């Protein structure tokens, strides 16, 4: 097997004295959807954010396309071909949909803009209808679509998504997950998906990691984890 | 007022809106009486060494009458009875102008109350209009409202511009009016510059006047000691101020909000104190005088020019008039201010300008999109500083004298007030606020020490009614042609 697109080895990260990650190892291969599930406070968002440089890892190593990116500033990392739709979406509320998308494309050659915009609108026709509307007045689902579309405007090699299903109705969740599946299947986009919604995430992803207390508790193919008793008991029972 | 509002909200539905408004107004007048009676009504006077108490019942009574009618007008306006409210406003204003008041201040207050009522009424109507629109909310409606607003903004903008261009040709344009207009435009230019830093990039800079000072002193030294002409010294002063911006910005722009404000405040004071104490360099408290006055491309504005120099009026075959210089200065600052304005409007649509605004909305999201926050803020800081430097040059050449006194914190506060009042980021709002703030402080010059009080009162009132500034609406930088893609 070729070298993974992104490799995390023995990653530690802390907020002041609180150690949120205590030696995490994760590999993401080109073309995969990898999901990270775990309880609230397990450190999922922290892992995703420290892949982007903040909080800075206190120990361990992150390599992207064979290049050591540990300790780079966030904006430098994002320019290497990683994009994220952060927890809570963080779209620009006073800016219009179109302006938000333009912001997503700041690091790319403007020559690609029209093409990328077209693709974004094909993925999310709703955004096309709403392109003149301010981000803050979009519905939660639309905001999530915008956050994903904005991330994709930078033509990333790796897309990081933090809880895209948060606070959305099941039907919208299915729509969004369907789009993620299409992006992966049609464009070969590598996706790292942080999710609470373990059942849907495992259905969508190829492989998965379970994070607990800042450590990887379990990992394997999605099918394996879906069939695993412990996972079922902790993350799936009573769920969906 | 808050007390009365609360009551109005919790009381069961009253018989008629008019009665309710009356009751409301009476209640507020009562509160005013309770407060003003002892505070204003009784004055201790030193009479022959012993303190006695004087009663000023006339003033209190008149004040309470103003409060009563003011509140009545507001209450009526809030209950949808706009016409009676405007009537009261007109009455108050007329009374303010015509009646013999015990003190001038009361007359001014009556006029201000009238004006406030009108503003409140209009704002209410506009809001109701917006709400009725929002009721049928589809996104095309929002876009339509946006378009109308843009049309209105543009119309008003052109109107103001036309008025400015025509002003010097008006028969009433004497040197006082022109000087005031020049002051307004100078502050407008400064405020537009600061608007880039605060309004667009969201960096609270309380020491903006430092860059104004750097520009002015650079200009003074360059033109006086090194023989630079205006057009040579102007860009150099701007660039020098911008470098100062970078120098200061680099270490401090990592700071956030309050910390940045405090550091910039300190920086402003440091510059002033250095200028005050570095006598060899800056002339200390005496400043730098006899800075060469601006000429019209080599033709000075003087009655009798030295041998070989053609003064301005001879060049055009006019009679000498001291107004010529003022008019030229006026147009010059108008052009400079417009340059800043057009530059800001343009740069908002470029990636860097959009990044400033995005940074103000969400810095974390910006980082995640690959934007380097420090550099982006630095450009905003430097460009804002550069415009302050230009304004400083203009100031130096028009006054032909600079001293640290012109660059106190009060100036920064004034410019900041204009930006905040204008609505942080709105170009037209800032222009209106500059006219309002400088115009009002001029208009109330007769009130001497009350002037700042009235100014403060005005600020408070505006912040109550328009907490986000006069024009707080942010226009999108990209216009959408329904379904037809992007127009940059
Ligand atoms: N900015 C911060 N400062 C201090 N502690 C933090 C900060 N962000 C997160 N933490 C702590 O780090 C731990 C991991 O948080 P994290 O946000 O990574 O959890 P999570 O797995 O994403 O949870 P959730 O599913 O609720 O989003 C938690 O104990 C949290 O309190
Ligand atoms: Mg999280």
Bound molecules: adenosine-5'-triphosphate, magnesium ion
Overall pLDDT metric of chain B = 80
Strand content of chain B: under 5%
Main sheet overview of chain B = 2 strands, antiparallel
Q: In whole angstroms, how far apart are the ends of chain B?
A: 47 Å
Low-confidence stretches of chain B at least 5 residues in length (pLDDT < 50)? 1-14, 482-488
Q: Specify the helix fraction band of chain A.
A: 25-40%
Shape of chain B: globular
Main sheet record of chain A:
6 strands, mixed
From the spread of the alpha carbons, the general shape of chain A counts as globular
- Low-confidence residue ranges of chain A: none
Span of the ends, CA to CA of chain A: 35 Å
Q: Give the number of DSSP strands of chain A.
A: 10
Mean pLDDT of chain A: 91
InterPro entries (chain B): ABC_transp_permease, LivHM_N, LivM-like
Organism (chain B): Zavarzinia aquatilis
GO molecular function (chain B): branched-chain amino acid transmembrane transporter activity
Keywords (chain B): Cell membrane, Membrane, Transmembrane, Transmembrane helix
Quickly list its features:
heterodimer; A: 240 residues; alpha/beta; Rossmann fold; six-stranded mixed beta sheet; four-stranded antiparallel beta sheet; 10 helices; B: 488 residues; mainly alpha; 2 domains; two-stranded antiparallel ribbon; globular; binds adenosine-5'-triphosphate; binds magnesium ion
């Amino acid at each position: 097997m070729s070298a993974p697109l992104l490799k995390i080895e023995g990653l530690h990260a802390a907020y002041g004295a609180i150690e949120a990650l205590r030696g995490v190892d994760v590999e993401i291969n080109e073309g995969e959807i990898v999901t990270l599930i775990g309880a609230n406070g397990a450190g999922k968002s922290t892992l995703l954010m420290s892949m982007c440089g903040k909080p800075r890892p206190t120990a361990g190593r992150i390599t992207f396309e064979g290049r050591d990116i540990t300790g780079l500033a966030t904006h430098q990392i994002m320019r290497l071909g990683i994009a994220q739709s952060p927890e809570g979406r963080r779209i620009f509320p006073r800016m219009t949909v179109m302006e938000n998308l333009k912001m997503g494309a700041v690091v790319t050659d403007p020559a690609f803009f029209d093409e990328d915009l077209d693709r974004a609108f094909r993925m999310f026709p709703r955004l096309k209808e709403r392109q003149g509307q301010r981000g803050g007045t979009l519905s939660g689902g639309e905001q999530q679509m915008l956050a994903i579309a904005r991330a994709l405007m930078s033509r990333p090699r790796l897309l990081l998504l933090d809880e895209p299903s948060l606070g959305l109705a099941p039907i919208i969740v299915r729509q969004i997950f369907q789009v993620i599946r299409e992006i992966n299947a049609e464009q070969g986009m590598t996706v790292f998906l942080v999710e609470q919604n373990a059942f849907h995430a495992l259905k969508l992803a190829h492989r998965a990691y379970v994070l607990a207390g800042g450590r990887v508790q379990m990992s394997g193919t999605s099918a394996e984890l879906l069939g695993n008793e412990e996972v079922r008991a902790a993350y799936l029972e009573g769920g969906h | 007022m808050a007390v009365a509002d609360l009551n109005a909200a919790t009381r069961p539905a009253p018989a008629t809106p008019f009665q309710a408004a009356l009751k409301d107004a009476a209640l507020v007048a009562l509160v005013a009486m309770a407060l003003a009676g002892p505070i204003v009504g009784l004055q201790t006077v030193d009479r022959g060494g012993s303190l006695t108490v004087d009663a000023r019942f006339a003033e209190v009574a008149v004040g309470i009458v103003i409060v009563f009618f003011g509140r009545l007008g507001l209450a009526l306006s809030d209950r949808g009875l706009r016409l009676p409210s405007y009537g009261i406003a007109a009455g108050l204003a007329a009374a303010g102008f015509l009646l013999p008041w015990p003190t001038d201040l009361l007359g001014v207050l009556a006029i201000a109350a009238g004006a406030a009522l009108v503003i409140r009424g209009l704002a209410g109507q506009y809001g109701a209009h917006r709400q009725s629109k929002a009721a049928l909310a589809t996104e095309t409606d929002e876009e339509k409202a946006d378009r109308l607003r843009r049309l209105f903004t543009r119309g008003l903008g052109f109107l103001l511009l036309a008025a400015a261009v025509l002003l010097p040709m008006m028969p009433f344009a004497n040197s006082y009016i022109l000087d005031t207009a020049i002051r307004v435009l100078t502050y407008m230019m400064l405020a537009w510059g600061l608007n880039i830093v605060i309004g667009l990039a969201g960096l609270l800079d309380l020491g903006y006047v430092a860059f104004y000072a750097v520009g002015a002193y650079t200009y003074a030294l360059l033109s006086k000691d090194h023989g630079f002409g205006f057009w040579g010294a102007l860009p150099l002063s701007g660039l020098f101020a911008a470098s100062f911006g970078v120098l200061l910005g680099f270490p401090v722009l990592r700071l956030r909000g309050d910390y940045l404000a405090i550091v910039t405040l300190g920086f402003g004071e440091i510059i002033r104190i250095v200028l005050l104490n570095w006598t060899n360099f800056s002339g200390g408290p005496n400043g730098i005088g006899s800075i060469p006055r601006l000429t019209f491309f080599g033709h000075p504005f003087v009655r009798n020019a030295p041998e070989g120099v053609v003064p301005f009026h001879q060049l055009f075959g006019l009679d000498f008039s001291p107004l010529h210089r003022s008019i030229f200065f006026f147009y010059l600052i108008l052009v400079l201010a417009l340059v800043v304005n057009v530059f800001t409007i343009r740069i908002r649509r470029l990636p860097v300008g959009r990044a400033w605004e995005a940074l103000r909305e969400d810095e974390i999201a910006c980082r995640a999109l690959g934007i380097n926050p420090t550099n982006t803020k630095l450009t905003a800081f430097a460009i804002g500083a550069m415009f302050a430097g230009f304004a400083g040059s203009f100031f130096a050449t028009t006054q032909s004298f600079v001293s640290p006194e012109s660059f106190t914190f009060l100036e920064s506060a004034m410019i900041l007030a204009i930006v905040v009042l204008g609505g942080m980021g709105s170009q037209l709002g800032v222009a209106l606020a500059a006219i309002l703030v400088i115009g009002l402080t001029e208009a109330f010059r007769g009130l001497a020490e009350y002037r700042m009080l009235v100014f403060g009162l005005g600020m408070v009132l505006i912040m109550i009614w328009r907490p986000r500034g006069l024009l707080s609406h942010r226009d999108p930088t990209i216009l959408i042609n329904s379904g037809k893609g992007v127009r940059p």
